[in-house]
Amino acid sequence: MKENFKLGGILLIIATVASLLLSCTYELTKDTIAAQSNAAKTEAMKAILPEADKFETLALDVSNYAGVGAVDKGLSDGNEVGYVIESSAKGYGGELKLVVAVSLEGKISGIKVLEHSETPGLGAKCEEPEFTDRYKEKLATAPLTLVSGSPSSDSEIQSISGVTITSTAVIDAVNKAIDIYNNELKGGQ
Q: What is the mean pLDDT of the chain?
């Protein structure tokens, strides 16, 4: 019995030290991780709205829009050129986060996946240009629909073969961005 208490005490000490080390590591690295995440997001925004040379985060209440994060206005020489909307949806491996750029003409100028936990080789195809380019120049006036075959209308997006859950997550996130564009941004903010 005494031996069990001794082993339990040793285990408690080891667990406490490990927890403290993990906590310290988090505190030391959280600012660096946040800075890298912001840099990756800025790079993604520039890639999908290349005419913008500066981005300003809008003070927009998105609390009624589940899965929508920051909304940025893209500027070129001080003139508005479009919007970039961060949104997310549940994919096969967890949350899938992306940014969607919408031009002033109401067209999607691009999407870029920021984070995902999808299966390598399958669901991870959601970030490849072969899939993301399917969204370019689509009208952001109504929700897009996912089809397994060739699209028959301009509002349809062909899914990635064999990756329905991930394809659905991407289109859900894009449709959330379209929704906030139509309800909050269309016509200028």
A: 91
| 116/118 Cα distance (integer angstroms) | 6
Rounded mean pLDDT, 89-109: 94
Nearest to 109 by CA among 189, 184, 181, 188: 181
For the chain, give every domain's residue range. Answer: 47-185
**Helix or strand (DSSP H, E) at 90:** strand 79-90
Q: Could you tell me which of 168, 180, 96, 179 has the C-alpha nearest to residue 143?
A: 179
More confident residue, 40 or 169: 169
- Please report the pLDDT score of residue 163 as a whole number: 86
Confidence grade of residue 176 (pLDDT, cut at 50, 70, 90): very high
Give the integer Cα–Cα distance in Å for 173 and 96: 8
> Could you give the CA distance from residue 67 to residue 6 in angstroms, rounded to a whole number?
49
Type of residue numbered 126? C
Pairing of the two strands 156-158 and 145-147: parallel
Phi-psi region of 25 (alpha: psi -120 to 50; beta: other; left: phi over 0): alpha
Asked whether residue 159 carries a pLDDT value surpassing 60, the answer given is yes
Q: Can you tell me which residue has the tokens 């994919």?
A: 91
Is beta strand 54-57 parallel, antiparallel or unpaired with respect to 68-76? antiparallel
pTM score: 0.81
**Hey, is 88 helix, strand or coil?**
strand
Q: How far is it, in rounded angstroms, from Cα 97 to Cα 169?
A: 9
